[in-house]
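EI: anyone free to look at a 128-residue chain?
SC: sure, send it
EI:
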Amino acid sequence: MASKSEMDKLIASQQTELDAVLLYQALAELAKSEEEKQTFLAMAADEGRHAAILRGITGAQLTPKNTLAKLSATMFRFGGRKVLLHFMAQFEINSFFSYQKYFDRYPEIASIASDEIRHGHLLTAMMA
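SC: here you go
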């Protein structure tokens, strides 16, 4: 059984994954190419799957929050594209390490962590 602290962290991660669905969908609408749009949409789908995996662990029924998506889309639209992509890439890669400590207890989290690394690399490639 997970401790309260551990469960709180997993619920926070679940919320972040859920919010990222809206974030990547919003960025898909602002993509500079069809390829970039499809990449953002695929990442949104991954984040939805991540939230579902975590819901299976936490049992928490959460609602996505659009605040991050709106703020990020505004930044993306008005000149902060590279800064935002850099920040997001780092966040995705760092998420791997946040999830790594749960691999033994929740093996299904390893697939989330693997996707986070991949997302980080995809976002980094978009900065070029």
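EI: The chain has a mean pLDDT of 96.
SC: 👍
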